[in-house]
Amino acid sequence: MLKKSLATCILLASFFSAFSQFDSASTPPPVTITGSVDVYYRYNFSNPKTEGVYNNYTSFTNSQSSFELGMASIQASHSFGKANAFADLGFGRRAQDFSYNDGVNNSFFSLSNVKQLYVSYAVTDKFKLTMGKWATHVGYELVDAYLNRNYSMDYMFSYGPFFHTGLKADVSLGGTSAFMVGIANPTDNSTTTSSTKYIIAQFSTGTKSGKLKGYLNFQGANWGSGGSTNQFDLVVTGAVSDKFSIGYNGTVSSSKPDGGDSKSWWGSALYFNVDPSSKVGLTLRGEYFDNKKGLLPIGEMPSSIFDLTFSTNFKVGNLTIIPEIRLDNSSEEIFEKADGSGTKSTVTGILAATYHF
């Protein structure tokens, strides 16, 4: 009897030991939490007096002589096996402007706080499916302020897509090349009643060293009424040395209404980045933006705009302080002086700070 009890105890101990090892191996890893905050002060030296006029036609800095809260972001990521989930919540005017179609326009106010939310599954090590809402692949600049060296945004970012909600597939082609293709709601819509869907795509490649990278991006749709929308976008980045790099972004967007003529806008920008030390970074952005066909609601008349932005990044750990000066020059008088008259040029100063964790 004692031998049987002892054998039973040994068997049970072995079973629980094996189960414990199995359970430990099956225990999901902890959730990864990251986040960021940004704040700024903006002053336009033309100092327009008309209510609601800030001499600002780009995203996220629509204020004058005011200390402003940009955005607080909290991101949670979790992977287990081949599956992954990601949630990115944003609070503040930057998040509200990013999800501008949500809230007042559709009564889904909580959706305006969801910057990104998606689940992914890696079918193989070279093929991954993702479904949900994610920041756009189009363009050079990003919604999170700490990921940009300039604090103010360019025109191409402001009038291109912000995000997509749909299903996409990422495919590795081996080496540094890959492509993405997907289907999504109309651009910048977290929810929609439209049956029209956009096709999105990207081809990316680069050198083995990673010093030169290129991204060819696309989004487009054919509307059931006979209209269409298409945008082609190119991003190239190159590291000349450890202290100097160059970025380029060029894009062209066209739209054809049903029974109407096709209209388009296009832009091109260069980014020169110099890092004298690990604590100081300098960036000069020059952009030409052509809206002469009047496709976009910029000012009261079609125009082309050249903007030149110089930003300094002072880095103290995860804190970055960004003093910035910006010149916007238009072919038409789309900006306003303090006396209410029009002007083609305006200068803006910004002092911003970002922190990420």
UniProtKB/TrEMBL annotation:
Pfam families linked: BBP2
Give the protein name, as stated in the record.
Answer: Porin
Q: Show which residues constitute the signal peptide.
A: 1-20
- Answer whether the UniProt record assigns the keyword Signal to this protein: yes
Q: Which UniProt keywords apply?
A: Signal
Query: In which organism is this protein found?
Result: Panacibacter ginsenosidivorans
Q: Which domain of life is it from?
A: Bacteria
